[in-house]
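Good morning,

Attaching, inline, the backbone tokens for the sequence recovery test we're adding to the shared suite. The designed sequence is right after.
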């Protein structure tokens, strides 16, 4: 077929009896290889040895036959899968009940039969694997080390088959490059379990899909009764040990037929489903084709705690990496306006904690939520962990000398109480003043008069967070809020101008000193009565803020937010041009007049400065090829003002 699903060509092959084609693979750029079974002894089929034989057809790109071969004995052999091998040959797998002809051995009933062919179909080696009952293989893959892995199911529990659970089990056989057994693994429970497809992950593990009727042994979380099948996906390490297993489906029959590793770091399972509950959210009637997409990297890290550092200026995220394998690094995400945004990563071999030094993060003004993921050795990212949220402590003056303490609940692990500490030495001499049960997030303290006063709140996790052998984290702490000895309250204000006339994005910040901390702030109505140290979203104008200290003293301060002064708007700005815009990375900046050096700055939509330079010539190159695609703001500043233009990188 072509990419649109239209038939390019179709052909039939066989004789006067029955032929089936079950395995297909692409042979480089030269055609196809097909495997199945044949009972005929005429037509396209020759060399039949009796019963049914493996039948392999080598076709060119137009579907014309290059060669065909039959393989087997006097019994029945059915090829289920064929793959091209690294040496230009082929590996074929199927069930076999003969012990003559091309078949050197049979262990009873029917076995896995693996046949290695060269490029023209000559047998290089063949081997049987199984027990005294019967085995059916459905998939064979060449492994990264040049060996092979075969997946199917078995009814046996002897000879090659060990550790069967009853009825029939997944049976996985790992071979070297000449067919010698490295290991075999029976997987499942007391019900019927059959494997149909598998793939090798880049870390050397194997993921298998099929179906399961069990809810014991290796199988857990079966959906519905054991009279209905689930998709059962299993991941084995390179030695055949189970890394993880999961049941997918609902209360009706569900079955996995194929599994594929996609290029985006997910794997896709396809099969069928009759369910409309649990994992199956849609059913269009009867049996539906069902496709399930999941993370290939299943190692989701668990945050142990988030806490504020001892300087009360940064947040620290701590996790335990014990038992994790094949992980390259950990990625940290912070909630920014409802979207978890990447803020940094930590190599697996480093200590398992991360200090968030992102510009603008201030544990004294806001609580923060964090999640994390792992990046495995294949470069695939896991799903998010659950979130943890820091504690924000705020202290205000009550009826002197009382201090009102209020804080946010910690979110992320279970705990039973908060501990509240006071320090009057400024030397981290923290004294516990109270413990409060869960849900109690305020306290009134009446401290002895002191020249210095600060507080913090902590919660204790269920177990110690171990970052490595030398660094443990025993509790999650809030920011520490200090109160200094009272002096005459003073306040000064500064402002940043708007980005352009008519744009309300200026800010005004008041800095209070002396008096008795903590301070409260109230800006006048023109700011919407903002009650923070910095008022934001301001239009050009004059604003007044009232600062109140813990002793009840007040002071006001006035500040003016200006619009930017035009840089001789009619001359300099009009003389400016940038092209191309939009740009793929490089643009030319031109001024028809330039009487002084100018500052050029580029900001992304989060307000972060991503590029700065001095413009000294009327024509220069602006190279932003290292920046992500998106919309940016270009700011030109001179001694007398600035102007802003939008630039788009495609």
């Amino acid at each position: 077929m072509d990419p649109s699903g239209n038939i390019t060509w179709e052909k039939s092959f066989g004789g006067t009896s029955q032929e089936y084609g079950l395995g297909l693979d692409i042979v480089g750029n030269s055609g196809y290889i097909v495997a199945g079974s044949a009972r005929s002894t005429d037509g396209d089929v020759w060399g039949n040895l009796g019963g049914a034989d493996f039948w392999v057809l080598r076709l060119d790109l137009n579907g014309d036959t290059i060669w065909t071969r039959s393989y087997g004995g006097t019994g029945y052999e059915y090829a289920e899968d064929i793959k091209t091998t690294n040496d230009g040959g082929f590996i074929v797998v199927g069930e076999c009940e003969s012990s003559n002809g091309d078949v050197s051995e049979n262990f009873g009933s029917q076995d896995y039969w693996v046949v290695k062919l060269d490029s023209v179909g000559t047998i290089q080696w063949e081997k049987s694997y199984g027990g005294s009952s019967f085995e059916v293989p459905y998939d064979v893959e060449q492994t990264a080390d040049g060996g092979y892995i075969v997946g199917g199911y078995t009814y046996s529990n002897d000879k090659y088959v060990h550790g069967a659970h009853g009825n029939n089990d997944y049976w996985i056989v790992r071979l070297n490059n000449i067919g010698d057994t490295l290991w075999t693994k029976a997987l499942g429970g007391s019900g019927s379990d059959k494997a149909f497809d598998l793939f090798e992950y880049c870390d050397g593990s194997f993921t298998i899909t099929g179906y399961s009727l069990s809810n014991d042994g290796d199988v857990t979380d079966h959906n519905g009764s054991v009279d209905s099948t689930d998709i059962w996906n299993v991941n084995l390490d390179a030695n055949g040990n189970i890394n993880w297993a999961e049941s997918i489906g609902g209360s009706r029959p569900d079955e996995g037929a194929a599994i594929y590793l996609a290029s985006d770091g997910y794997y896709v399972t396809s099969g069928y489903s009759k369910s409309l509950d649990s994992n199956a959210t849609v059913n269009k009637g009867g049996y539906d084709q069902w496709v399930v997409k999941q993370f290939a990297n299943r190692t989701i890290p668990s945050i142990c705690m988030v806490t504020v550092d001892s300087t009360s200026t940064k947040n620290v995220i701590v996790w335990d990496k014990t038992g994790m394998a094949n992980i390259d690094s950990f990625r940290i995400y912070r909630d920014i306006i409802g979207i978890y945004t990447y803020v940094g990563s930590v190599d697996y071999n480093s200590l398992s904690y991360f200090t968030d030094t992102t510009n603008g993060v201030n544990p004294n003004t806001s609580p923060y939520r964090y999640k994390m993921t792992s990046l495995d050795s294949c470069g695939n990212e896991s799903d998010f962990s659950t979130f943890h949220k820091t504690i924000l402590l705020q202290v205000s003056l009550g009826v002197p000398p009382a201090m009102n303490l209020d804080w946010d609940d910690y979110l992320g692990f279970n705990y039973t109480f908060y501990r509240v500490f006071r320090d009057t030495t400024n030397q981290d001499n923290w004294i516990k003043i109270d413990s409060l049960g869960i849900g109690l997030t305020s306290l009134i303290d009446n401290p002895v008069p002191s020249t210095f006063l600060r507080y913090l709140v902590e919660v204790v996790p269920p177990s110690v967070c171990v970052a490595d052998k030398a660094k443990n984290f025993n509790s999650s702490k809030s920011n520490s809020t200090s109160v200094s000895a009272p002096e005459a309250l003073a306040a000064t204000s500064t402002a940043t101008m708007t980005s352009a006339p008519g744009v309300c994005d200026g800010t005004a910040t008041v800095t209070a000193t002396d008096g008795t901390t903590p301070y409260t702030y109230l800006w006048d109505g023109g700011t919407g009565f903002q009650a923070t140290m910095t008022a934001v979203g301001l239009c050009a104008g004059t604003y007044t803020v009232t600062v109140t200290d813990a002793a009840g003293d007040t002071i006001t301060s006035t500040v003016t937010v200006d619009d930017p002064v035009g840089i001789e708007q009619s001359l300099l700005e009009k003389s400016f041009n940038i092209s191309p815009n939009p740009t793929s990375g490089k643009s030319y900046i031109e001024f028809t007049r330039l009487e002084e050096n100018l500052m050029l700055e580029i900001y992304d939509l989060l307000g972060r400065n991503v590029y700065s330079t001095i413009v000294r010539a009327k024509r220069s190159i602006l190279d932003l090829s290292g920046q992500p695609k998106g919309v940016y703001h270009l700011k030109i500043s001179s001694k007398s003002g600035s102007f802003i233009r939008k630039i788009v990188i495609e």
